[in-house]
Amino acid sequence: MFAKVSSLGLFGLNAFPVDVEIDISRGNPQFEVVGLPDTVVKESRERIRAALRSCSISFPVASVMVNLAPADTKKSGSVHDMAIFMAILR
Amino acid sequence: MRMIDDVLEGCTFIGEISLNGDIRRINGVLPMVMLARETGIKSVFVPADNAKEASVIDGVDIYAVSNAEELIRHFRNEEKLTPCEHYVPPETAYNETLDFSDVRGQQSAKKALEIAAAGGHNALLIGSPGSGKSMLAKRMPSILPPLTFEEALETTKIHSISGLLNSEMPIITKRPFRAPHHTISSAGLAGGGTVPHPGEVSLAHNGLLFLDELAEFDRKTLEILRQPLEDRKVTIARASGTVTYPCTIMLIGAMNPCPCGYYGHPKRRCICPKNKVTGYLSKISGPLLDRFDLHIEVAPVEFGDLSSKAKEESSAEIRKRVVAARAIQEERFRGTGITCNALITPDKLQEFCPMDDAAELLMKSVFDRLGLSARAYDRILKVARTIADINGSEVIQKAHVAAAAQFRSLDRKYWSE
């Protein structure tokens, strides 16, 4: 299952649009973020897992793949947390 | 998962989520929301803490979210969030605690700083310890003209990405005054880092950068200022990419003339050997010195001034003249993108700085006698323009040129021996 949610990134003074794409499919349960994320973005997995639980929503037992497009631009910071969260809910 | 059915078309989400589902504030919301408006996004969901900053931008619906539950309820159509009202920053009341009336005497230095504020010129204050250099410079914010909305947005963008805003101060409404300590590094001053951050020069954009104890700064760090002072922007190239930050600043420097501080003092004797004095002064290179339009000698305060009961002129009165001079400039530069005299581009110099014959003659003799650089000539002309504006004169007269040129004479006293 595929979903797309839009977010925004920042480099220097310039913002750029980021599409948070998500694919939830059957397979080994895992949660991956790709699209040149830095450590902070990678760690958002743990924050989102916990945040979902606190909203009494269990994390999907499936292979969850998140892509931050454009995939060749570095993403940094915790800005995308909310968009990834929304993408999972879709 | 289909926990929500609502379409997310035209919505964008920015914010950090904490483990318990709270949405935390992030940096750089203003430039991001500006982009959202440009790209035609209708709704932006931001952390509640950033909502005011975001709603400065008109034309997009800003939704303030304080926790994830709210977000879910909104999209399940259980409890809709309402868009924030467009935030119009309140007119900042003029309230400066430091006032020029606190400074006794120093009339000529005050006049020079008034000219600096009126035209956006760089100024260098030189004087013995305790003469009031820092005291004068710290009172500069009280006479600076107000920020225009466009300028405020530009400055706020830089403060936004640096994480210097909070919900009480969502937008910068006052010209910034930055006074970094002299131990500052190059990256701290000009900006830098793996993902380049703005430095002090950019944080002072549209405001004032005050470098106290100028000669104590690392020489290499100071030289970094050269190009940003001319170009009004800093371009930082790192492996991760190249970033350009604007830095239209007024630079105010303050320094002693020698290590002991009393070189050139009318009453006290300087105890520094000659080579120490030269060494101390040579920390400020010629090219950097050339970029200071006004060299101001802050003489020691006379006892008469200190004990005098006479009331000194207040900042509010000085500011009135500064604002009036800025209004003339605004009228003159309408549609050119120039905001003050210091920013006149070389091609526009002739057009905006007409001199009468006597002034031109004086300018020529000053140029020849002082051996000025082309840049110094331009800068004297711009200062003369500002002095003419303060005096309400359309054409630059001889007296204006004379006054402007006199502010370039200090380097002869200290640096040419």
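The longest strand of chain A covers residues 14-25.
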